[in-house]
Amino acid sequence: MTSSMKSILTYFDAGALSAPRLEAATAIATAFDAHLSVLACGYEPAIPPVPYANTPDAFDFYQNYIAEAAAEAEKQGKKAEAALAAAGILSDVETLARTPGDFATALATRAQFADLVVLSPPYGSDKASVATEAFESALFEGDAPVLVIGEGQSVPSGGVAVIAYDGGREALRAVRGATPFLKAAQTVEICVVGASADREERATMLAQQLSRLDVAVELRVDPGGDATIGDTLARRVRETGADLLVMGGYAHSRLREYVVGGATRSIAAAPPMPTLFAH
């Protein structure tokens, strides 16, 4: 398990959650004496906007939109640089003018070389949002731990952390990515929802492994009942007063979770506390 966090990644654009997202990433970088990399973004249209797509002037209109996206990226980059300079942390800002899909690809590439990616909740009324593409690209193609912080939430501060453990690979990878936070926590609870004997045995092994890192760890088996796993975890976070939830992301397919629901999607859409996912 990695015990250090030295490379953190986030992005900054004209969205309403950019400032709190950057503040959260800055606070984490400060706490761990880490380097923060920021992608400052302006978004190009994927195709010339209607009604210009099929006109003789389509190329000119498209070039104008590209120029506007580049100018927006520079504008956001300057804002990010000013905030980082005030914070006095190790950092760099890279400006990108891309389509949302190409931006997500660029983010995923950089996420492969980050210890943590800090993002905003990815799901809401707009299922095709930049936030959705950023989250799924960082999680899958980026293969990175992703910390989702909701609006108004504070970064983990060394209180109680809850691990949602289902015995799967994704949950264990999330624990590995969260190790620096877990080592800083006063107490870590491994919460197993609807446990089987095999799952409890694995959870006991995980508790033993964490205890060797001097983590104060407790194991709890929650029957769950009729509530969904997402609702059970949200309740447990409230009961413990946790400031961090750690869980695997998409142990089931994205399509299945989209159609029938699932813990990843429900928690990521409205995280009860900052939540670290890994796939």
Describe the structure.
This protein has 279 residues and is an alpha/beta fold. It has two domains: 7-148, 3-Layer(aba) Sandwich (Rossmann fold); 160-278, 3-Layer(aba) Sandwich (Rossmann fold). The chain has nine helices and ten strands. The protein has helices at residues 18-32, 58-87, 100-111, 130-139, 169-184, 197-211, 229-240, 254-260, 263-269; strands at residues 7-12, 35-43, 91-98, 116-119, 146-148, 160-164, 187-193, 217-222, 244-248, 275-278. It has a ten-stranded mixed β-sheet, with helices on both faces. Helix 4 (130-139) links the parallel strand 4 and strand 5. Helix 7 crosses helix 9 (263-269). The longest helix has 30 residues, at 58-87. The radius of gyration is 20 Å and the shape is elongated. The two termini are 16 Å apart.
Class of the largest domain in CATH? Alpha Beta
Number of domains: 2
End-to-end gap:
16 Å
SS-based class: alpha/beta
Which whole number gives the mean pLDDT?
A: 89
The backbone outline, from C-alpha atoms, is elongated
The proportion of residues in beta strands is 15-25%
In CATH terms, the superfamily of the largest domain is HUPs
CATH-defined topology of the largest domain:
Rossmann fold
Low-confidence stretches: 254-261
Counting H and I runs of at least 4 residues, what is the number of helices? 9
Beta-strand segment tally? 10
Biggest sheet record: 10 strands, mixed
Radius of gyration: 20 Å
Strand order of the largest sheet: 3-2-1-4-5-10-9-6-7-8
The SSE string, one letter per element, is: EHEHEHEHEEHEHEHEHHE
Helix % is 40-55%
Q: Which CATH architecture of the largest domain would you pick? A: 3-Layer(aba) Sandwich
